[in-house]
Amino acid sequence: MSEHGRHLLALTDRLNGTETYDQAADLVEEILDPVDGALERLADFFEATGEKAKESDADDGFDLAQDFEEAAVDIRRLNEDLHLAVDRMRALTTPPPEPAPPVRTTYPANSALPMPPAPADTPGRHR
Questions:
Q1: 109: DSSP letter
Q2: DSSP secondary-structure letter at 20?
Q3: In a structure prediction context, what are the per-residue pLDDT tens digits for the chain, which is 127 residues long?
Q4: How would you label 9-33 residue by residue, b for 16+ Cβ within 10 Å and e otherwise?
């Protein structure tokens, strides 16, 4: 696996281990940042690859250049489509944990259960 592939795999593992949506949004931003995100850099790479293909004297160079240029446009379009994704991720909330069942603190007068004894230092209790 390439160094870049390992980096993206590690980023995915970090995303899977996040505990908050803010943490997840920070990682999503590494991919989607419109100036320095991975998608923008990938689009730059494909543009440069297209330019390199045009330098060739081979018949297929021009067609290959167009393929890479179209890929760059598609990647930028995807990045634009997801431009609100980081903010939307931050806006998500984790549902609160389910409340614990209530603890019974009083007993009905006709309950078969005995009343718990009052603590010894309760005001108004005679010793």
A1: T
A2: S
A3: 999 899 999 999 999 999 999 999 999 999 999 999 999 999 999 999 999 999 998 889 999 999 999 999 999 999 999 999 999 999 998 666 677 777 766 656 665 655 556 666 655 555 4
A4: eeeeeeeeeeeebeebbbbbbbbbe
DSSP 33-97: -TTTSHHHHHHHHHHHHHHHHHT--STHHHHHHHHHHHHHHHHHHHHHHTTTHHHHHHH--PPPP
Which amino acid type is present at position 45? F
For the question of whether the overall pTM of this predicted structure is more than 0.85, the answer is no
Q: Which pair of tokens denotes residue 90?
A: 């931050």
The CA–CA distances, whole Å, from 108 to 75, 99, 101, 102, 112 equal 68, 24, 19, 16, 9
Q: How far apart are alpha carbons 6 and 8 in whole angstroms?
A: 5
